[in-house]
Design brief:
Length: about 700
């Protein structure tokens, strides 16, 4: 019978591998897609500008800026990068040909109010301003309407002067096939970083900003930290195993079982969801570490006088119960509305079940000739049981009373000082505002969208914002402007132009991707455009306008993360209720309470400890508690259902896990350190409590 089951196990695993090979699941890195159930527009807006890199070139000499710009453009690999920087000279020529209907908001307001004298006075000031750059001569544009229009857009020069230095901004955007692949994106960004370091010297400084830059440095730092942690963890586990078992041969079946579990979890999640979020790997592969406990219990129970089959039979009840309770804890997450929680649940359940079956079916074959001389680990006797438990409960209550929450995704990542400085300089030079919100405008066609944008601009009295209608007025607006300009020409004459001043008859300006490629940034999809508002906090002013949706990404995302955290917290009650029912059926009501108490108290204590230490609770602290439940329950179940010798396996499982997670808590990436903190403190607490509370009557 077991031969057939082994064949069936291998066959099913191969089928899963083949199905995944035919259509490999993509790796998703957008955190919002993992936690937002249905608001795809919010996800799209947050990711729309996440593939863009800003290059800021700084120098005291304008010639150095131009030279560095040319060199940077020459060395950048443009095979998967498209420049989204505006060609100022080309656009200027387009505006000249269509200038007859172009007016700045300032001049439009003055002309609508009939203040023609004020327009004339401002034109005179431009003429005699020694620093003024005139786009057209006074004979072509006596009132300098086009000059004023372009100044309203940011000027006509591609060089920015700020704090007595010259700056040039280059904008690049990675193609979707690169932007959606973290490994390929990091390789491209690494090349840009190398170019930056190569060209930066005492005369020229180059700054890089944008989401891909932050992702590159964050992932590079995390990879280094995790690799170091992995090396220390492996050395620690190997040393402990060699100390206890006097052999390292046991690591081979342990690694094979872990590999089988990871393959099962990966394939099942990829097949059902089509993609796997990177956070699913972070949580689920961590939890599959529980399966190492199964192997440790097997080898601790294996003695020279027992066959592998007898060893399996001695621990089968503990293994089965541990697997069922852990999988049941995560089964609840399948019914949540959050994609990340569903993926973690399926990955974990599939992985643990795969490891469990591998151990039962294949360990009797793989471990038949592996003999270990186990060394008894001295058991530590704790005194003051009541004092310790009372102290844990009191500290938990005090900490829970002082809890603070932080649902801001940005708090999960703290950039380096170098990147913070680059973002600050770029923000000052580009005059970017600290807070940006979005409006999606939907119309019958592009012209209708432009008209709605202009209506919104008038209602909100916007002065600083970005939208397509700022660069290309609607045809309706251009007709209005032409009438105003014609009235100006017929009413006022300038003294500094002697030739006849005629109103320029020019065709309407319309959007062309060839002339305005950078305006694609404002197109959401067909017949939908995007407006960027700066430091805007009055969305109620645009309520009721048909085809208009307002998004404050930072606020909206924080609310969604908060909702996700609250929903996860509410799942603890049904999770513990389900586990209680399962344990009560197997061990009885009284014993099930004993088994669950260490995990429950440890969960309360570690959350309470964050309050005492002044650490703000985030979503990932809460998610880590689910991992704590899985680990902690296994400790209690094995201790309750096993022999005294099993205590060694529980101790080894705990000490290896606590060591690894303690190192994780020291990483610079707060998302990972949050998990490490909860699990290192929680597992140690759960283990200590299990010594006091778990005993068979």
């Amino acid at each position: 019978m077991k031969k057939f089951l082994r064949f069936l196990y291998i066959f099913v695993l191969l089928i899963l591998i083949i199905l995944c090979a035919i259509k490999p699941p993509a790796v998703e890195t957008n955190i919002l897609k993992a936690i937002i159930p249905s608001e795809t527009e919010l996800v799209d807006l947050s990711g729309k500008y996440s593939s863009k890199v800003n290059v800021l070139i700084e120098s005291d000499d304008i010639e150095n800026v131009y030279a560095a710009t040319d060199l940077f453009n020459q060395e950048v690999d443009k095979s998967d990068i498209k420049s989204v920087s505006a060609d100022v000279n080309k656009i200027l020529e387009v505006y000249k040909k269509h200038r007859g209907g172009l007016l700045s908001k300032n001049y439009e307001t003055l002309l609508l109010s009939g203040k023609f004298d004020e327009v004339k006075n401002q034109s005179l000031q431009k003429l005699y301003n020694p620093l003024q750059i005139l786009v057209l001569s006074p004979q072509e544009d006596p009132f300098f309407l086009l000059t004023d229009f372009l100044e309203n857009l940011g000027g006509t020069s591609d060089i920015i002067t700020f704090n007595d230095k010259y700056y040039k901004i280059l904008n690049y955007e990675f193609d979707d096939n690169i932007a959606l692949s973290p490994s390929q994106l990091n390789k491209k960004v690494e090349k840009m970083v190398n170019i930056q370091r190569k060209l930066s010297d005492n005369d020229v400084k180059i700054y890089l900003t944008g989401a891909p830059i932050h992702s590159y440095f964050a992932s590079s730092r995390s990879i280094i930290e995790i690799n170091i942690i992995g090396i220390f963890s492996i050395l620690f586990v190997c040393s402990l195993c060699f100390y206890y078992f006097k052999t390292l041969k046991i690591l081979i079946p342990m690694l094979l079982s872990l590999l089988a579990g990871c393959i099962a979890g990966y394939c099942m999640t990829g097949i059902f969801f089509g993609n796997i979020h990177i956070l699913t790997f972070v949580f689920s592969t961590t939890l599959i570490g529980i399966s190492a406990d199964y192997s440790l219990h097997y080898f601790v129970s294996k003695t020279p006088d027992k066959t592998p089959e007898e060893t399996i039979n001695n621990i089968i009840k503990s293994l089965t119960c541990g697997m069922l309770t852990t999988c049941s804890a995560f089964l609840i997450l399948l019914f949540s509305k959050t994609l990340l929680l569903k993926q973690i649940a399926l990955f974990t359940i599939s992985g643990l079940f795969g490891v469990y079956l591998f151990l039962i079916l294949f360990y009797p074959i793989l471990c038949a000739k592996i003999n270990s001389n186990s060394k008894k680990i001295p058991q530590i006797n704790f005194k003051g049981k009541k004092i310790l438990i009372s102290g844990i409960i009191i500290l938990s209550v005090i900490g829970l009373w002082r809890l603070n929450y932080n649902d801001n995704i940005k708090s999960m990542y703290v950039p380096s000082k170098e990147l913070v400085n680059a973002e600050k300089i770029f923000s000052e030079v580009s005059r970017a505002k600290s807070k940006t919100s979005f409006i999606i405008v939907e119309g019958k066609d592009l012209e209708d969208c432009l008209e709605k944008e202009e209506k919104i601009s008038d209602i909100l009295n916007l002065t600083e914002y970005q939208a397509m209608s700022r660069y290309i007025p609607s045809v309706q607006k251009q007709k209005q402007n032409k009438n105003l300009i014609e009235r100006l020409y017929s009413t006022e004459k300038t003294d500094y132009v002697t030739s006849p001043q005629k109103y320029p008859q020019t065709p309407d300006l319309v959007f062309s991707e060839e002339n305005f490629p950078f305006l694609n940034n404002f197109i959401y999809e067909k017949n939908k455009t995007i407006m960027l508002l700066y430091d805007f906090d009055s969305p109620e002013l645009i309520e009721g306008i048909e085809g208009v949706k307002y998004f404050d990404i930072q606020k909206d995302v924080s609310n969604i993360v908060k909702t996700c955290r609250q929903n996860c917290s509410r799942l603890f009650i049904p999770v513990f209720a389900l586990l209680f029912v399962i344990l009560a059926i197997i061990f009885g009501v009284k014993n099930s309470i004993k088994i669950m108490l260490p995990s429950m108290l440890a969960s309360l204590f570690v959350i309470g400890l964050t309050g005492i230490l002044g650490i703000d609770i985030n979503l990932f602290h809460i998610l880590a508690v689910f991992l704590l439940i899985g680990f902690g329950l296994d400790y209690s179940i094995f201790r309750f259902n096993g022999s005294k010798q099993v205590n060694d396996a529980v101790f080894m499982s705990c000490i290896t896990s606590v060591f690894s997670f303690m190192l994780l808590s020291l990483t610079g990436f707060k998302l990972i350190s949050s998990i490490g903190f909860v699990l290192s403190i929680g597992l140690l607490t759960s283990y200590i409590l299990s010594i006091f509370l778990i005993s068979k009557d």
